[in-house]
Structure formats: C-alpha cells, structure tokens
Amino acid sequence: QVQLQQSGPGLVRPSGTLSLTCALSGASIDNANWWTWVRQPPGMGLEWVGDIYLNGTTNYNPSLKSRVTISVAKSKTQFSLKMTSMTAADTAVYFCASPPPGGWGQGTLVTVSS
Amino acid sequence: EIVLTQSPGTLSLSPGDSATLSCRASQSIGRHLAWYQQKPGQAPRLLIYDASTRATGIPARIRGSGSGTDFTLTITSLEPEDFAVYYCRQRSDWLVTFGQGTRLEIK
Among all residues of chain B, which has the CA nearest to that of A104? Predict the structure, then answer.
C-alpha cells in the first residue's frame, strides 16, 4: 500500500503563499485515478480542498478555487498544493490523501501568523 | 453541492455495546460513500468505501450499509479503541463533501 509523506512549512505569513508536497513511496501517481488535499481547522471537521486526476484535470473547492493550485511533479512520485493570499482563517492541519483503499499523509499543521 | 448530514452529533455508549451512525445525503449519491475514523492528533483512517467495502485490516464487526441518500455505519461489540470521531464523505460528483462528524464517546 502506498505511503504518503508530507513536507512543507508550518508557519505562513498573512498574505503569503502555502506550499506543501506529498511524496509517494512504493507507488507512482499513475497507480491511482486521483489524489486529494483535505484540511481541518483546529477543533473542526474535514474540508475538501481539491483533487488532481491522472489525466491532469483538477477540481477545487469553490470556496478556495481562486487561490489553490494542485500539481504533479515530473517525477510522478509527488504532488503538491499551493495556496495564495493566506489568512488566519486558513490555519488548519492539511492532509494529502490517496483514493480508497489507500491512506492519508500524516498531516501538516499550518499556522498563518506574523 | 451535496450536503451530508450525520446523526447523532454525539453518541455515548459503553464498551461491548453496538453503535449505529447515520449519514444522509441531500440527493442520491448511489454508493459513492466512505466512512473515516479519526482520533485526536491523527489523520483520518479509512474504514469503509463504496458504502459497504471494508478497508484493509478493518474487522468484520464494523459494517457499512445503504445506498442513494441513507447510509449507516454499524459497529458491534464496541472496544475502547473505537471511541473516536467518525466522518462520512461522498464523491458522487466532482465536488467532494464531508459530513460534520459523529463523536462516539465512552458513557
């Protein structure tokens, strides 16, 4: 089963850009039809951020669409999330995930603060 | 947007009891529903996908059922490690949504 390892900064300045990477071990992007980012504000529920499909198509949560980009690295062993114009409301744990029956990354707590 | 409504919000039971968690969709989603368990400080863990297929390593006492708009997660013979928050998630269309969660707590 593919393992997902997330990396990226835990602190982002207001109005800054978040960049997170999800590295796959034991598989490549081609091993699943889509890959996902989900976030969870402190003490709250899960919120879907967006998907990238095998053919390169992306779908984003409409509430975030103007600020989010999900992409796949040329190596096809990692995919990334970029979110611009960050505010305190974007403070959350961000998870990458593979489709069922696959698992999720360990999560990255991203705090937006000066 | 398809809205998923989970009930109850909190379920208080004892080890050995059976738990029944509900997830209702605002429109038909076929069987495109998954259930996740989340414990504090951990990533969600996939329990059930395609409404009733158990993920790898999930015991038979955890069962998913339903189709269309009404879905149920049943956990029998509750064990201490079952007390957690449970989320349902649909991806019937391109806009993926989660339920708000059900907290299963020890009575």
Answer: B43
Mean pLDDT of A68-93: 95
Give the 3-state secondary structure of chain B.
Answer: CCCEEEECCEEEECCCCCEEEEEEECCCCCCCEEEEEECCCCCCEEEEECCCEECCCCCCCEEEEEECCEEEEEECCCCHHHCCEEEEEECCCCCCEECCCEEEEEC
What's the rounded Cα separation, in Å, for the pair A11 and B57?
A: 35
pLDDT digits (tens, 9 = 90+) for B51-107: 999 999 999 999 999 999 999 999 999 999 999 999 999 988 889 999 999 999 999
Which of A48, A101, A107 is opposite residue B96, by nearest beta carbon? A48
Which of B1, B43, B101 is the closest to A104 by Cβ? Answer: B43
Flag if B43 and A46 touch (Cβ within 8 Å): no
- Residue type for A42, please? P
- Report yes or no: A1 at the B interface, CB cutoff 8 Å: yes
Q: Collect all residues of chain B within an 8 Å Cβ-Cβ radius of residue A101.
A: 46, 49, 53, 55-56
B37 close to B47: Cβ distance less than 8 angstroms: yes
Residues of B with CB under 8 A from a CB of A: 1, 34, 36, 38, 42-46, 49-50, 53, 55-56, 87, 89, 94-101
3-state secondary structure (DSSP) of residue A54: coil
pLDDT of residue A66: 95
- Tell me the mean pLDDT in the region B11-35: 97
